[in-house]
Every structure is written in structure tokens, then in C-alpha cells.
Specification:
The protein is an alpha/beta fold. About 45% of the residues lie in helices and about 15% in strands. The strands form 6 sheets. It has a 7-stranded parallel beta sheet with strand order 3-4-2-5-6-1-7, with helices on both faces. Helix 2 runs parallel beside helix 3 and helix 34 (about 850-870) runs parallel beside helix 36. The chain is globular.
């Protein structure tokens, strides 16, 4: 048994901890780690990967003398740092090993203590390791590093944080010499890439056979009860059925973790569950919530104070949140790897089975079925690494100049080339970046006979520490409905940058809205019925569905058309639902699959059904939009999902088919199109920040982006922006393969008029409800009326100054009268005007008043005059947002025949105020 390889003291602690048998990752990993090999351990969550890595290292530290810092443990999240410290502290304490955490939230006092008395084991993040590398004292401690452990490495490899870490490890190697590298990963589709990423001579340990999964798909059938309560819950019948089943499953289990794909869905499910049963102990967890709220939820869930938590990807990683006996995925998880990671949170103990249920319905069933099937067969997505990221390269070159006073170009090139993402870096590109950095005054380049001596510049310090994080700073804007006067959700800065002009229409929270104005961090909107003219809906950053999943959805459609579905692990109702959708499609149109693309049209929409996944459809969609715009001279609206490309255009379906069958310029057209897009502008800002051209505080709406882009055209900033977009947002290579198949006839394109069931689903999903407006004008007006009549106003008698009352507009009498002096001079003021009564009393007593107080009293008196003449109608007008006595007088002078007409005029005045008041002079 591998535990026998440890010292007697460690073996004793293992028994004390209750470890009887080593798990598979421990059996396979411990001997290799003890021997000093670089290893990558791949295993599901909850079967002792952390102990497999750390017990051998703890044993080594306890057996012989060592200098701090001997071990660095890197995790991708600060929350994992907190959790890991709790988990490892027991062992460290028993072995008299000092262990501590260092990240962005670490206090200055703790940092000073770590400099003076460094720990044996330091738990940190990639960004913090980048920071401490440059410190003179900490560099002295880092010379002692003998082992580096990277937890959840799969979360880093496919993004720029991972690229940064790969170079940082090579910089650490310059200080400490060769150290042992150990990485821990969940089940992943590209182990070889991760092993290369980790370093040289890495042994891959597949320890995946011990984890059992029980995966099911359920499509709850609506009941009579669901129909009865759906109106109360303000959701559709099918959604009510899923919610009811979710509620049942939570009550049938001890501890249930529910995953959704968006924050909005998580919030809606939580609120509807609360309506269904206010006593159910459940909460929500996602990245937009305050850190304190997230930590509180994690603690309460772990300690069984909550029965269920509804979360986004914020709880995917290995934070210990207690013994979960079921994971529910609400709708398709979109990727196999994501799904397995999430399901692995249940049965998170050694030898326990992980149970997962996907609650699905409608067309979503196809994708859910494919993902569950691929998960059971162990078919996972491949990883894409950011090759030659130029902005990260720039930051790391500057970092190297901070590590040492001066370096040769050859030394920097050698260090960078050792990092896997830069293994193909050419000398020409390297020198281009050096000269670009010199031009930005971030480094000194001193020519020599054999190359350059490179030194730091003062500006390099600020630049480097501003760019420790490669994650873009994103600002969220709160969306506020002018009708209800309440926040309805958040939009990211990216959406505001692209679509945030007053007058623009968009779809959000299942409804269409028009932007009235953007002020500070608020987007003031009003609901509209004009769904068809709205720009595509805002869903946030949805996980892209891979090509391989979408392709198999096409195959599943064909199987459902011709065969039964017995081999798929789905319930009876799911099979019936899939068959029903296919039969409906077949009754009017061809069933599109991976070999047959269908083009159909409705009004000015052309829908291309193509089972190619999120990135390929986005790529082909952008290409078609560019070509059709050029052809027709009219701009084309485009929205895609993994199975369709929707074009809003004056073009004909035949023109779309002809473009696809004769395409040979996709890369050229796309590059030109992207360079002119708002997406390019948005990404350019982030890349420019990482190059130090723009400060981190620079905001999209405060800078002339077009001018800066023109200034830096054909530079590394421009090149990196394009590279990033083509890697993360598009899939050019697979798109070329698809178009080639169309040319060769391996993919057939059929044109059929009218709207099929799959086409109708596309328009409902992407444009909320093209065919039928969801919120009638009457309902919008009633919501405004409820809000206005519920608005609390402050009433003050201007005649005696002895009467003041606060009450909702609806409770105000038709002709308000002061109960003290019986005067009708009752002023209406907002609740914030707390000093008004003092001003009135000053006036009555003829006391001396300041200029501001005189102006304030004049407004109070105008308000009272209006109430004396118009009664409650004046109170209603003055309760409107941004409506003062002058505007109220204008509204009331129209002498509206009904209160409804008065309310409508008040609403119009509110909108005008929201639209124009930011331009008023203070």
C-alpha cells in the first residue's frame, strides 16, 4: 500500500484522519511524486487529488530540514484559497509546518509578516505569484521553492491567465532552478496539451475509473395543478412543470445543488421557489452577488442551514460546500466537461456515486440528451490554448526587467520560449514587441554588437502592477424600468458599448425595451410592444456549445426521425417530446441535420438551420451578414445559436444559398468586417489596457476609440485584438471545413418557404416573441398606474406650517385640506425634502431667509397653489419622477377629460425628464 511509503508519523496521521485505503489518484500519484517526477493527475472531483499531491510533500518537509518557501500551491480562485487553507491546515499543524495564504485581499500586515517570517507552504493565485516575483525580499525566499502544485489547472490552460502563469513559472525557474511541477485537473479532453503546458517530462496519471456517475434527463409533463399556478408564478406552464419537479427533487434529497447557465435564470428560479414555498430553505449564488453574501451562502449550505443553492458556474470548482446528494442542471449545460464538473459536486466523497439530473424540455432536450450521452462515454471537449498572446508577452517582458536590473535579449527570448504558449515565438515577432515596448516607454533598449541590453524604466513598474490580472475589468449597468421604477437586471459594459444609445430597442428578461437614457450606471428603459424592430436579446456570456455537440444533435434528429430512442438514458416523456418536435417539423418542412442545411424565411427574417455549434454559426453568420450588406446596400441584423443563423435582411434565401456555395473569401471578408465592428472596438480597449496604452480606469464612453484604433493600426495591439476575437468568438478553421463540404455537396442546402416549428422556436428564443407581442400596452399602463398611486408623498400646509403628513398618492383626498387651519394650500413634496417645514415656518414668522431658501419656498408655494386649484390631480402630477411645479402646471393646464389621460401625460413627462435631464445645467 502506498501509505507505507510515508514516515511513521505521517502514517499515524493518516490513520487518525480515518483514511483506510488510498484512492486511485493517491495510489497512482504518491509514488511518482515521492520520486520527484513532474506529474499531471487527472481525476474527478471528490476522490482525494489534493491529498495525493500534498501528503508526499508534507512528509518530505517534515522529514528533513528545509528553507521557506519550499512549496507553492496555486489555485485559480481566492475562494479556493480559503477552502484549501482550512483543508490542509490540519496536516500542517500536526507536522509543525507553517502554511499561509497570499492573494489580493491579504492585508499589508500579513504581507509584512510573510516577508519577515515566510511560511513553508504558500497558497496563492497566478496573479499574486506574478506580483511577489519582483519583490527583492520575497525573491530571496522564492529561491527555496522545490515544489509547485497547480490546482484546477484545466481552469487556466484555455485563457490568458494560464498563458501568464506559464511564463511566470519559467521566471520562477530562473530564481529557484528546476522544481517539481504537480498539476491537478478534473476530467478533461486534452491531457497532452495540459501536460505540455505544465512543463517538460510530465507524467500523465489518469485516475478516473473509480468515480461512478448516475445521469438522467427528465422532461416534466405539465399537470392541471401546473396550469392553475402558472399565472400566479408569472411563468409558462412548461416552466412551471420543471419548477414543480425541481421542488419535488429538493424535498426528496438532503442537500441539492442546482446549476443554471445564467444569473438571471438563477434569480428567477429562486424567487419562484420562494413564491411556491416560503418555508423552503434555499438561496442563490452567482458572481454578481457581494462576496459576503456568497461566503454566507457557502457556509449555510455546508452546515445544512440551507437545503438547496441555485448557482451559476460560481460553485463549479472544488470548494468544499458539504455533502451534496444530488446535482440538478436546469436546461442543457452546453458542454460535456462543464456538466461532469458540476455533477461531480454531488457524492463528493471517496467511493460515493455522483448523481445528476438535467431538467429539460422542448428543443433543449436534443442538446441535453447528446451531452448526457457523451458524458457517460467520456467524450470531452478539446482545449484551445492562447498561442502567442502578444499582450501577455509584453507584460511578462516588462516583468522580467523588474526581476533583474538588466538582461540580454537572448536571455529573455530563451525564458519566454520555454513557456508552452510561446514555443513557436519567432525572433522577428519578439523583436517587434521589444521595439513596440520601447516606443511606449516601458523598457530601455540599448544596442550591442550581438543584440540588445534591456533595462527597466520607471513607468514599467506601474504598468506591470496594473496588469497583474489578464481578466478584463467589466462594469455592470443597472437596468431600471421607468414604468415600475424598479431594477430589472444588469447589463455588462460590452452590451452598452455596442447597443447603448438612447432610442435603441433590445430584449431583456423576456421583454422588449427601449432605452430612454443612460445616466451614470443606470439604463433607464420603457417596455415596448415593437418586438420585431428590437436588436437581439441580451443573455450575458453564455457558454458556447461545441461543434461536436451540435453535430451530434443533427445525428439525433435523424435517429428520432427514423428510429426509436431506447438507447438514450432519458425518461418516457422526453422521448415523446423529441418525437413530437421532429414530427411537427417533418409535417411542414425538412428536418435539418448535420448533412442537410435548411433555409426558410418569415417576413424579413431568413433562418439558416445548421447544426454547427456556437462559434461556427457565429463565424458563418458574420460572413453572410457582411456579404449580404455589400450585395443589397442595406445593413443586416444577425443573431445565431448553435443550430441556426438568423438574418434580418431584404435579401432572398436564394442569395444566401448562392453565397455559401460559391464562398472562397471568408477570412478576408471576416477580417474586414470585424475591424469595423463594435466587438473589435470593445476588445481593442481591453488589449490596449494590457499593453499600457490605456489606463485600467479608461472607460469606453470617455475616450475616442476610433481615433486610438486608427493610431495603432498594423501594430501588435491591433494584431492581438484580431487574434483574440478569432480564437474566442469565432472558429474560422471549422467554418472553412463546413463551407468546403457545402461546395463538394457533402452538405445539402434546401430552401423551403414559411416558418417551421424549429424556425419558430428560433425567433421566440432569440427575439423573445416575433409573432405575438408579450406585454400589452394596457398592462404596461396599469403597472405605471400602480407605481404612481403607491408613491409616497410629503404633504405640508403652507398657510399655518403646523401640518405635515406622508402617505401614498392613492390615499390622498380629492381636495386635500389642512386639519389644523382648514386651508387648501397644501404643498406636495418628495420624501427627501425634510427641511421644507422649517422653510415654511420661517416664511410665516417672517424670519430672515437665504437666497436658496427663498427659491425653495417659491417652489413649495407653486406646488400648494396647484393643489388648491386642481386637488388630487395636482398631487398625482407632482408625484411623477422629475416633475416639478412648472411641468405639473403645464400638464394640468391641458384639462384632461379622464384620470387615465392625466396619468398618460404624467408618464410622457417622466420619459421626457429621464431622456433630457442629464443635459440640464446644474
Amino acid at each position: 500500500m502506498v501509505f507505507n511509503l510515508f514516515s511513521e508519523k505521517m502514517q499515524s496521521l493518516i490513520k487518525e484522519k480515518g483514511f483506510i485505503e488510498p484512492t486511485l489518484p493517491q495510489k497512482m500519484g504518491i509514488p511518482e511524486i515521492i520520486s520527484g517526477k513532474n506529474v499531471l493527475i487527472i481525476a474527478p472531483t471528490g476522490i482525494g487529488k489534493t491529498e495525493a499531491a500534498m501528503l508526499p510533500l508534507f512528509d518530505k518537509l517534515s522529514k528533513k530540514e528545509h528553507n521557506p518557501i519550499s512549496v507553492i500551491y496555486i489555485t485559480p480562485l481566492r475562494s479556493l484559497n480559503r477552502d484549501l487553507l482550512d483543508r490542509l491546515y490540519w496536516w500542517a499543524n500536526k507536522l509543525d509546518i507553517d502554511i499561509s495564504v497570499r492573494h489580493g485581499d491579504t492585508s499589508s500586515q500579513e504581507r509584512a509578516e510573510q516577508r519577515e517570517s515566510p511560511p513553508d507552504v504558500l497558497i496563492t493565485t497566478p496573479e499574486t505569484l506574478s506580483a511577489i516575483l519582483t519583490g527583492k525580499v520575497m525573491r530571496g525566499h522564492l529561491k527555496n521553492v522545490r515544489h509547485v502544485v497547480i490546482d484546477e489547472i484545466h481552469e487556466l490552460v484555455d485563457n490568458k491567465r494560464g498563458v501568464q502563469l506559464s511564463v511566470v513559472l519559467e521566471r520562477l525557474r530562473e530564481i529557484a532552478g528546476n522544481f517539481q511541477r504537480i498539476a491537478l485537473s478534473a476530467t478533461i479532453g486534452s491531457p497532452e496539451i495540459i501536460s505540455h503546458f505544465l512543463g517538460e517530462d510530465v507524467k500523465i496519471i489518469h485516475a478516473e475509473t473509480t468515480k461512478e456517475y448516475e445521469i438522467k434527463i427528465e422532461c416534466p409533463k405539465p399537470t392541471i395543478e401546473d396550469r392553475n399556478i402558472s399565472d400566479d408564478l408569472l411563468i409558462g406552464i412548461d416552466t412551471t412543470a420543471k419548477l414543480r419537479r425541481l421542488y419535488e427533487l429538493i424535498n426528496l434529497h438532503k442537500s441539492v445543488l442546482v446549476f443554471t447557465n445564467t444569473r438571471e435564470t438563477a434569480e428567477i428560479l429562486s424567487s419562484r421557489l420562494r413564491t411556491l414555498d416560503s418555508t423552503l430553505k434555499q438561496s442563490v449564488h452567482h458572481g454578481s452577488l457581494a462576496k459576503e453574501k456568497r461566503i454566507k451562502t457557502e457556509y449555510e449550505f455546508k452546515n445544512r442551514l440551507l437545503k438547496s443553492v441555485i448557482a451559476t458556474s460560481s460553485l463549479e470548482l472544488g470548494i468544499d460546500i458539504g455533502s451534496i446528494d444530488l446535482v440538478i442542471q436546469y436546461q442543457s449545460p452546453r458542454q460535456v466537461t462543464k456538466f461532469i464538473q458540476r455533477v461531480g459536486r454531488s457524492g463528493h466523497g471517496i467511493g460515493e456515486k455522483s448523481k445528476g439530473i438535467i431538467l429539460s424540455g422542448g428543443e433543449d432536450l436534443f442538446e441535453s440528451t447528446v451531452i448526457a450521452n457523451k458524458a457517460c462515454k467520456g467524450e470531452f471537449e478539446k482545449i484551445n490554448v492562447h498561442e502567442l498572446a502578444l499582450d501577455v508577452l509584453a507584460t511578462q517582458i516588462v516583468g522580467l526587467t523588474l526581476d533583474e536590473y538588466e538582461l540580454t535579449d537572448e536571455k529573455i527570448y530563451r525564458i519566454i520560449k520555454r513557456a508552452y504558449p510561446y514555443r513557436n515565438l519567432s525572433k522577428a515577432k519578439f523583436y517587434e514587441i521589444l521595439k513596440f515596448l520601447e516606443g511606449l516607454r516601458l523598457i530601455w533598449l540599448n544596442p550591442t554588437k550581438n543584440g540588445y541590453i534591456i533595462r527597466r524604466r520607471k513607468r514599467g513598474f506601474q504598468y506591470y502592477f496594473e496588469n497583474l490580472s489578464t481578466i478584463p475589468d467589466t462594469i455592470q449597468y443597472r437596468v431600471v424600468s421607468i414604468i415600475e421604477g424598479e431594477p430589472i437586471g444588469n447589463l455588462d459594459e460590452e452590451f452598452i458599448a455596442e447597443h447603448g444609445q438612447p432610442g435603441n430597442k433590445f430584449i431583456f428578461s423576456g421583454r422588449a425595451w427601449k432605452i430612454i437614457q443612460i445616466e451614470k450606471r443606470n439604463v433607464i428603459v420603457e417596455p415596448i410592444e415593437d418586438i420585431e424592430s428590437a436588436i437581439p436579446s441580451w443573455e450575458g456570456e453564455l457558454i458556447p456549445v461545441p461543434y461536436e455537440v451540435a453535430e451530434e444533435v443533427g445525428i439525433l434528429r435523424r435517429i428520432a426521425l427514423n428510429q426509436d430512442l431506447e438507447k438514450f438514458n432519458i425518461d418516457k416523456n422526453s422521448k415523446e417530446e423529441i418525437k413530437k418536435i421532429i414530427e411537427k417539423q417533418k409535417s411542414t418542412h425538412t428536418v435539418p441535420d448535420e448533412k442537410i442545411f435548411l433555409i426558410e424565411n418569415y417576413k424579413d427574417f431568413i433562418i439558416l438551420h445548421s447544426c454547427c455549434g456556437s462559434l461556427v454559426n457565429e463565424t458563418i453568420g458574420k460572413y453572410l451578414a457582411a456579404k449580404l450588406s455589400e450585395l443589397t446596400g442595406v445593413s443586416v441584423n444577425i443573431k445565431s445559436d448553435p443550430y441556426r443563423i438568423i438574418l434580418q435582411t431584404v435579401a432572398k434565401p436564394e442569395q444566401v444559398k448562392k453565397i455559401l456555395e460559391n464562398s472562397d473569401d471568408i477570412e478576408e471578408v471576416l477580417t474586414k468586417s470585424i475591424e469595423m465592428s463594435t466587438l473589435f472596438k470593445w476588445r481593442f480597449i481591453h488589449v490596449a489596457r494590457r499593453f499600457g496604452i490605456l489606463s485600467r480606469e479608461a472607460r469606453y464612453d470617455k475616450i475616442n476609440v476610433s481615433k486610438i484604433i486608427e493610431q495603432y493600426k498594423n501594430t501588435p495591439v491591433y494584431e492581438e485584438t484580431l487574434r483574440e476575437i478569432f480564437l474566442e468568438k469565432l472558429d474560422l478553421e471549422k467554418s472553412k471545413i463546413i463551407i468546403n463540404k457545402i461546395k463538394k455537396g457533402n452538405i445539402k442546402i434546401k430552401i423551403e418557404p414559411g416558418l417551421s416549428i424549429l424556425g419558430e422556436n428560433a425567433l421566440i428564443k432569440q427575439f423573445s416573441d416575433v409573432i405575438k407581442p408579450r406585454v400589452p400596452e394596457k398592462e404596461i399602463f396599469l403597472a405605471f398606474k400602480r407605481r404612481l398611486l403607491s408613491t409616497r408623498v410629503r404633504l405640508i400646509c403652507v398657510n399655518c406650517g403646523e401640518y405635515m403628513n406622508i402617505l401614498p398618492v392613492r390615499e390622498v383626498e380629492e381636495q386635500p385640506i389642512c386639519p389644523k387651519c382648514r386651508s387648501c394650500l397644501i404643498a406636495v413634496l418628495g420624501r427627501g425634502k425634510t427641511n421644507a417645514i422649517k422653510i415654511v415656518k420661517k416664511k410665516i414668522k417672517k424670519a430672515k431667509m437665504s437666497e436658496d431658501e427663498i427659491k425653495e419656498f417659491q417652489n413649495i408655494r407653486r406646488s400648494a397653489d396647484l393643489v388648491a386649484v386642481y386637488g388630487k390631480k395636482a398631487v398625482m402630477a407632482l408625484a411623477g419622477r422629475g416633475i416639478g411645479p412648472q411641468t405639473a402646471a403645464r400638464i394640468l393646464s391641458m384639462l384632461q377629460p379622464t384620470k387615465e389621460k392625466l396619468l398618460m401625460d404624467i408618464l410622457l413627462a417622466e420619459k421626457e425628464f429621464a431622456r433630457t435631464h442629464i443635459y440640464w445645467k446644474a
